[in-house]
Amino acid sequence: MSRFWFAFLLFAPGLHAAGADADRQLAESLLAITESRMPDALSAVDRLTRQYPNFRLAQLVKGDLLLARAQPLRTLGDAGKASTPDLELLRQEARQRVRALTDPLPTDKVPAYLLNLSDEYRHALVVDASRSRLYVYENRAGLPVRVADFYVTIGKDGVGKEREGDNRTPIGIYTISGFKAPGELTDFYGSGAWTLSYPNEWDVRQGRNGHGIWIHGSPSNTYSRAPRASEGCVVLANDDLKRLGAYIQAGKTPVIIAAEIDWVGYDALDARRDELSAALDAWRADWESRDTARLLAHYSTAFRAGSQDLKAFAASKQKVNAGKTWIKVGLSGVSLLLYPERPDFALVSFVQDYQSNNLSDRTVKRQYWSRENGRWKIVQETSL
Questions:
Q1: Segment 330-348, tens digit of pLDDT
Q2: What average pLDDT does range 362-381 have in this prediction?
Q3: With contact defined as beta carbons under 8 Å apart, do 169 and 156 qualify?
């Protein structure tokens, strides 16, 4: 069995998918193979196929183990026949599932994007397309701690969605906006779908279109799909989608989708958070100063707020500030998230409590900040 492909891919135990029972059982079988415990391996995968008879990859491993009684195996699905497209898709899934075991994540690092999570966010979801994995991070007093992860499928043509029908999964930061129960959908979506806020304000500004980007389940006759098999959605096994639901708050949970996660240490995360937090607080203080020039210095020349460009926005602020004798601005529920693939770009959201001598207002805001010539500036603002 030394040439059996799992023997050189799996070299250490360990599973980083809390609660992912099917992954655990498959891992037990693969680990038993590497240790030449074939009866144990067959027993483990046999339990898995009884529990999930539509888990095609597990069925393939079981078939290989039965075949191994008669002949040595050179590769996954080695039954003496030529490779087929379906078989190659199963091999791709196997590689990604095995990678989750053999290439563990750094325990002293976190995704660079999670600078600061609002207290209202109990969890954040981060998708790494390169690993076919969705990671769940729990917000522990602003500190992100990984508590679960799941195998996922992304778009047939990868990531970087630009237009309707391009079969790509978007890269960016989104919010879970709601849930569609199975009764509202066809069987194609399995145990339901969490809808995402694609396209967001920045996507629209960049001319990206399309709709219906969801995190959803799999058809009832399919346990899981190949790493790249969707039309742009993020797809999980139905049981995994149900487990994932325990971590989601509709309207609040942020979802970050990256081609490949940028991992940083906690010290680096703190430094980036402090820098952006200081820029945000300086903006707030300069607004309170009623010095319009100081306030406008925080905005990019490319700034947009709805239909307003910087020139129109500046004229409006100049007029409003002229009628103020005092201004107080309070920020709460602050969330700071770096954009995937762009370490110089961030999404900042908060609840703004504005008070002045003639107006009091409470607004939820989303701002996109960009670092220009070493200084963070606001390029897009939306009031909700």
A1: 999 999 999 998 989 999 9
A2: 97
A3: no
> Domains of the chain by range and CATH?
6-102 (no CATH), 109-261 (2.40.440.10), 266-383 (3.10.450.50)
Dist CA 164 CA 212 (whole Å): 10
3 three-state secondary structure: coil
Give me the amino acid identity at 357.
N
H/E stretch holding 253 reads none
CB atoms under 10 Å from CB of 7, counted, come to: 16
C-alpha span between 236 and 257 (Å, rounded): 15
- What is the pLDDT at residue 20? 54
Residues in the chain, how many?
A: 384
Alpha-carbon distance 320 to 309, whole Å?
Answer: 17
Beta bridge partners of 352: 331, 363
In 3D space, the residue among 199, 200, 198, 173 whose CA is nearest the CA of residue 113 turns out to be: 173
Q: SS3 for 374?
A: coil
What is the spatial distance between Cα 182 and Cα 261, in angstroms, rounded to a whole number? 31
